[in-house]
Amino acid sequence: MGLHTRTVWAVQRHPLALFVSIIFLSLLSLFGLHRLNLDVNFSDYFSPTDPQFVAFKQMNNSFDRHDQLWLLLEREQDWREVALSQPLQNFVEQLEGNPNVLSVQGYNQFLQGDARTERILNYKKHPRLASVLSENGQAILLQLKLNEAESKAFATRSLWLMSTLDDINAEAHAFWQPVKVNSYLNGTHALNWQYAKVLRHDLLWFAPSLLGIIFLMAMLFIRQKMWIAALCLNCVITLILTLGMAAWLQLTLAAISAFVPVIIVTLALAYASHLYFAWRGAIKLGKSNLQALEQSVSVNQAPLFYSTLTTIFGFCLLMFSPSPPIQSFGLLVAFAVLCNYLLSLTTLIYFAGFSKPTKQIGVNFGSVLSLAQNNVKRPNSVIFGIVLLSILSLMSVSKLTLNDDPLGYFESNNPFTLSSQKMRQYFAGINLQHYVVSSKSGVRLDKVELTFIYKFARFLKAQAEVNKVQHLGDWVKSAGIGQNQFKRLLSENSVEQLRLQSELAQLKNASLVTLYLVPMTAMELVAFEAKVKTWLDTNAGSVDVSPPLGSNLLFAHLSIDNANNMLMSFGVALLALAALLSMLKRSFIFGLMGLLLNFLPLLWVFALWQLNGGFISLGTAVVLGMMLGVIVDDTLHLMLKLPSKDGSDNNNAMMWDALSKVLPVITFTTLTIALGFAIGLMSDFTPISQLSLLSCLVVLFAWGFDVLMLPVLYQRWVLRKEHAE
């Protein structure tokens, strides 16, 4: 570490190379910003190499699906009234006049007669009429196909999608509101529309909130212009470099990525505070500005180095997540922490050298030490309480379940949430799952495949989880033809002529079976998948059947895999921290204390989360993976500054002296990080708000354990052992 100290002061004496390097890297980052992928899409959460995701995309390419953008129109009277036909046709013509809309299909086709006058297959009752007209006739569906070519006129596809759907939504509202008809947009495009809006909302709120936190912390605690200016400069540089890395590496960004700048700025402010408070303490003792800076660096270099190392390690473990945006999240924050560390020991110290200390150098947290001293007078009660509450917490956490629903990530008043409720109210819902049934030989479907489809559909309809099943046999039955006749029609006509593009592959060797499921949790979806697989293993010997395909099921597997990986990462990081402390302090006891101080806060918080009806989701699982890397900073600063076991009779006084210097600092860092994470509570995106809430609680609980539990354990396990020896 001695070489490290000499390097720090060598940079201060020759800062030109430092600033040239910073300017060069900043310009390089700025020049690469045009490569930044800001085209957010909900499918970005899936790995492009995931076999199930690849199969899902192939299915969408093989079959002409009509679920990307639905417009639901709701009224009190029946839509089958003749008086409504002409207004509906006028509205469809108005939509088709929009350059962003290629076609409008759905209930309007039945009014125009297109769906009733099939050239080949004729029906007494169209098998898909119930899919676009509700049973009571009060709701209809229109399927809009968008003109993707128009997106080239916009900077990103997301901006085009937001603009297009805003226009369609406003157009529908203006046309139908006078006659008391409600309109709702649903489907994949509508999901991405609201997803992009949430990201924009978060970015607009997070930026001023960050500035507010910096201003508040500066006014209350720092009050040193050069320190504040240097800190702000470091934050700006770190953000630029981090965005530059994301751009040049073309990392996958998503709505959760909007929280990255919040973490970067709050951690930068928290980490720099250790240097500032040590400098302020030295100034109070009458040292010059330079002497105070030298002492600050000397005292904090080891804790800063190891806390940076462990924080980087903690966030890098997020890269084990199966979701690309979470991987990018971890990599970006880890890189930013490294930048913060290097800048804190270079530019921050350089500009702090020009500060002019005043007598009013901010509020301190001296009362925190009194709290710790009063608490240590009742060690038995403290330990008993912690053990009892930890046992109860373990019992509570054991009841946590995985209950992720990507379609429920928005607020209850969000347009997508409202439209989803209407889809469930009037139709079979939006929880779709598909199976592709194909012939084993790869040739055209025959009687064997159609017979199996009927049998499979009967099994599925008998399941409580299934609202409705759609398959190729519906068309055969509705047309009133036999299987042999249908076989002849398949051989003589194209899929387009039969108008079966949504359920029959172009080569006629595969057909789609679509399930409309009741709302289900991730674990329920996986359990249903296993139940169907058991049936298929016994009954599907004569045909090929794909695994179940659907966005909700994909997300269920993603959530489960992500939760398992985050739990494993947390365990690895916790053991690594214990090993590091044991080696640095040359005592297993310090490693055990570090393990408890960082494990118990998360245990207690997740216990409270479960008692309050919470569950494991994408956002809450990320807390497991990343928060150890955050709270370990304060633990390391405390543990490394506490006296090791050396047989000295003065260790108790030395302990309180060390705590008197560190506890005020970690109180400041806790307040800063908690306020920073609290910004995410303003997000309309559930994973971010959940991540923010749990992160705030973990930080506060970790502070409580550091202040109230550490002195008790140190006296019991370290000092008492010394006296016994």
Structural commentary:
Helix 9 (about 260-285) runs antiparallel to helix 23 (about 650-680). The longest helix has about 40 residues, at about 685-725. The strands form 2 sheets. Strands 2-3-1-4 form a 4-stranded antiparallel β-sheet, sandwiched between helices. With about 725 residues, the chain is an alpha+beta fold. It contains 24 helices and 8 strands.
What is this structure, in a nutshell?
The chain has 24 helices and eight strands. It has helices at residues 2-13, 16-31, 51-62, 85-96, 107-112, 157-176, 188-222, 225-248, 260-284, 289-316, 324-352, 367-375, 379-397, 415-426, 447-461, 473-479, 483-492, 495-498, 522-539, 551-585, 588-611, 618-641, 651-678, 686-724; strands at 70-74, 101-106, 139-146, 182-186, 431-438, 466-470, 510-517, 544-545.
The helix fraction, in percent, is 55-70%
Largest sheet: 4 strands, antiparallel
Strands in their spatial order, largest beta sheet: 2-3-1-4
**Average pLDDT reading:** 86
Please supply descriptive tags for the structure shown above:
725 residues; 24 helices; 6% strand; 4-stranded antiparallel beta sheet; elongated; alpha+beta
Secondary structure layout plus pairing:
Blueprint: H1 2-13, H2 16-31, H3 51-62, E1 70-74, H4 85-96, E2 101-106, H5 107-112, E3 139-146, H6 157-176, E4 182-186, H7 188-222, H8 225-248, H9 260-284, H10 289-316, H11 324-352, H12 367-375, H13 379-397, H14 415-426, E5 431-438, H15 447-461, E6 466-470, H16 473-479, H17 483-492, H18 495-498, E7 510-517, H19 522-539, E8 544-545, H20 551-585, H21 588-611, H22 618-641, H23 651-678, H24 686-724
Antiparallel strand pairs: 1-3, 1-4, 2-3, 5-7, 5-8, 6-7
